[in-house]
């Protein structure tokens, strides 16, 4: 979906396909047929943006076979879909029964991460619509925090600088500018937008910026206006933003609240949980740890890294951090000029929701994704953006 900002520029809205994980190219093509096109039809749109997730094997198959890349581009066009952004965070296995810490491997100190992201950039350059010259890729925020020492930090910096050089060369070759956004996430080396300032200043290349995920922003109790103003002041670009909402518990000391939270403690994904204290945020690596130990104070609200559907907050006594998303979006695109042109709805946890909240079958999932995109569209038009055909 495309929108005209009051300044005349185009803002793109997509939804991320990591909700339909596939490891190989045939699976990606099936996603387009079984999921993405039905969502587009529900929205009554001739064209729908998708934030494509390509696992390692799919990405390298496309890079290694130009005819396969052309075939994917043709299939996107045939189904009324377009791609201006990729989710490069998960490397492989995102559809596994247990993902947890595996999603942070390989990290930016590992050569495989550089090779994979280079492949993604080459693929994206070949998928961009004819009238679009800029693409974006979100990636993990350097590494998970443990075992990240100065040696690994130096390797990560070198890898990102090498990537920036490769993106410069790709631009010269194709005329397509691809930028990368480190995506701050609780528990990682770059946990907050503040944490991103120093490493990005060290890299100091305009190809490398930040991907602001509004679920992660809220989970870390960052104020959207403060965070985005600091990025602007530091001249760190917001490459893209993922529109998502975290799980919020106002009174975590109450038994009924803990019982409600326990329904979201599931074995597939990591749900980092945080609370705000006078000394700053405190947290656990997973929701179960917060519920079963004394590691997290419960006198103040908790937030968990669980991407809940934007249009459907959990039933009381829980809620979502949709207000944080709205505040962030106002700052991102509500001013005289947008801070980013690429927005991506990223609720990948539909099948991890408590059983009674999960969609039953493809049709209900498509209904839910369409409802999320409708909410996002309405937020954008309320900010003065005009939806384009």
From TrEMBL:
Domain of life here?
A: Bacteria
Please list the residue ranges annotated as the Xylose isomerase-like TIM barrel domain: 65-230
State what protein this is by name.
Metabolite traffic protein EboE
């Amino acid at each position: 979906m495309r929108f005209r900002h009051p300044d005349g520029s185009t803002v793109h809205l997509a939804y991320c396909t990591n909700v339909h994980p596939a490891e190989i190219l045939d699976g990606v093509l099936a996603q387009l047929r079984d999921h993405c096109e039905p969502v587009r039809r529900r929205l009554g749109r001739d064209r729908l943006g998708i934030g494509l997730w390509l696992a390692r094997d799919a990405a390298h198959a496309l890079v290694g076979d130009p005819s396969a890349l052309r075939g994917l581009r043709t299939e996107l066009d045939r189904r009324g879909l377009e791609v201006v952004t990729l989710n490069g965070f998960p490397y492989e296995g995102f559809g596994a029964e247990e993902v947890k810490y595996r999603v942070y491997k390989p990290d930016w100190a590992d050569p495989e991460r550089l090779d994979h992201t280079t492949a993604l950039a080459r693929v994206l350059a070949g998928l961009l619509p004819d009238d679009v010259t800029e693409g974006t890729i979100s990636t993990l925020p350097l590494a998970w925090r443990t075992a990240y020492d100065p040696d690994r930090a130096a390797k990560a910096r070198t890898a990102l600088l090498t990537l920036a050089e490769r993106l410069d060369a790709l631009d010269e070759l194709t005329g397509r500018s691809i930028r990368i956004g480190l995506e701050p996430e609780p528990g990682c080396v770059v946990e907050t937008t503040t944490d991103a300032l120093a490493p990005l200043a060290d890299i100091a290349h305009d190809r490398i910026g930040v991907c602001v995920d509004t679920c992660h922003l809220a989970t870390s109790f960052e104020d959207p206006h403060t965070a985005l103003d600091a990025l602007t002041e530091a001249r760190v670009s917001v490459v893209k933003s993922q529109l998502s909402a975290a799980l919020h518990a106002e009174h975590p000391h109450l038994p009924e609240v803990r019982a409600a939270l326990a329904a979201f403690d599931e074995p597939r994904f990591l749900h980092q949980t945080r609370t705000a204290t006078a000394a700053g945020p405190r947290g656990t690596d997973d929701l179960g740890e917060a519920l079963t130990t004394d590691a997290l104070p419960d006198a103040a609200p908790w937030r968990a890294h669980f991407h809940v559907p934007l249009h459907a907050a959990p039933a009381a006594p829980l809620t979502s951090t949709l207000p944080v998303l709205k505040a962030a979006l106002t700052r991102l695109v509500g001013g005289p000029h947008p801070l980013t042109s690429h927005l991506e709805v990223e609720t990948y946890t539909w099948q991890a929701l408590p059983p009674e909240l999960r969609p039953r079958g493809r049709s209900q999932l498509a209904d839910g994704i369409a409802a999320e995109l409708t909410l996002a569209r309405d937020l954008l038009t309320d900010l003065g953006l005009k939806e384009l055909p």
